[in-house]
Design brief:
Elements (H helix, E strand, L loop, with lengths): L1 E6 L14 E6 L2 E5 L6 H8 L9 E3 L5 H4 L8 E8 L6 E4 L2 E2 L5 H6 E5 L4 E5 L2 E4 L15 E5 L2 E4 L7 E6 L2 E6 L6 H12 L3 E7 L7 H13 L4 E5 L4 H10 L3 E2 L7 E3 L2
Parallel strand pairs: 3-4, 4-5, 5-8, 14-15, 15-16, 16-17
Antiparallel strand pairs: 1-2, 1-18, 2-3, 6-7, 6-11, 9-10, 10-13, 11-12, 13-14
Helix pairs in contact: 5-6
């Protein structure tokens, strides 16, 4: 089992970087692309890694923001490729006054979308799409500046479409988060409760760039309590949060850069 970071705000040389996130999970013939970044950077990095995009049969989209779904248009027309989403991913997304989504019309006509109706869906082998995470704690919630247009009305975006990737093995769970808009601790708690196993590793965006030190420390303490072994903080986690994790998290903190490969043994 291998996870490769294909798109992130930072990259190893000679790989490309951009504001966005994408990761490829490979387990034998079971290959799942999680998010696509903002552009074709994930494809450029796949080429540099000698990875064949034609072998990907499943894509899971974490949510509808451009920096996670923008690369879809570069996949072209692929009838065998299945894109897994929650229905509300197609709503018009805004961050303040700025449009934060994409134009879905052409993409929806060229790709096959499968909408998850329940909370978890086995994509292939031991890889699941799961979400949205229940909002169970009192210190995480979606940022109020994000909103959507639903049925012609402006609504606060509660990221009801937010999917995470869960990889299950006999040692526990590995959880991939796109942006953790519903809270990375909520995601960890929900995954552990649903699958009934401890979490080995959490990777992806933690959405803590503008979080208070108090909030970050509560998340670190929770991770320590449930004995997470490794974290790979990417994309929207923020330098302050990463530094605090490096200082206070009792497990291992791995750098997240495009081009990085992580083996799950």
């Amino acid at each position: 089992m291998r996870i490769t970071i294909l798109c992130n705000d930072k990259a190893q040389k000679p790989f490309f970087s951009e504001h966005g996130f994408s990761a490829l999970v490979e387990n034998g013939e079971c290959n799942v692309l999680f998010d696509t970044g903002s552009s074709d950077v994930f494809l450029k990095n796949m080429k540099a890694l000698n990875l064949d995009p034609a072998k990907i049969k499943n894509v899971v989209l974490s949510h509808g923001h451009y920096d996670h779904v923008g690369g879809l248009k570069h996949l072209g027309e692929q009838s065998e490729l299945k894109v897994w989403v929650k229905e509300s991913v197609f709503l018009s997304n805004f961050s303040g006054k700025r449009f934060a989504g994409i134009d879905w019309k052409k993409i929806k006509s060229s790709l096959q979308f499968s909408e998850l109706e329940g909370s978890a869906q086995r994509i292939c082998d031991s890889i699941f799409a799961w979400g949205p995470a229940p909002m169970t704690n009192d210190f995480e919630e979606p940022d109020p500046e994000f909103w959507v247009i639903r049925n012609g009305k402006i609504e606060r975006n509660l990221f009801e479409e937010e999917l995470n990737l869960v990889i299950e093995d006999d040692k526990g769970l590995t959880v991939l988060s796109g942006c953790a808009h519903r809270g990375i601790a909520n995601i960890a708690y929900g995954a552990q409760a649903l699958f009934g196993k401890r979490i080995r590793m959490i990777a992806g965006g933690f959405h803590l760039s503008h979080a208070s030190t108090k909030k970050i420390l509560r998340i670190i303490n929770f991770f320590n309590e449930i004995r997470v072994e490794k974290i790979v903080p990417c994309h929207c986690t923020g330098e302050k949060a990463i530094k605090l994790f490096q200082e206070r998290f009792q497990g291992e903190v791995l750098n997240c850069e495009a081009g990085k490969e992580i083996s799950l043994l």
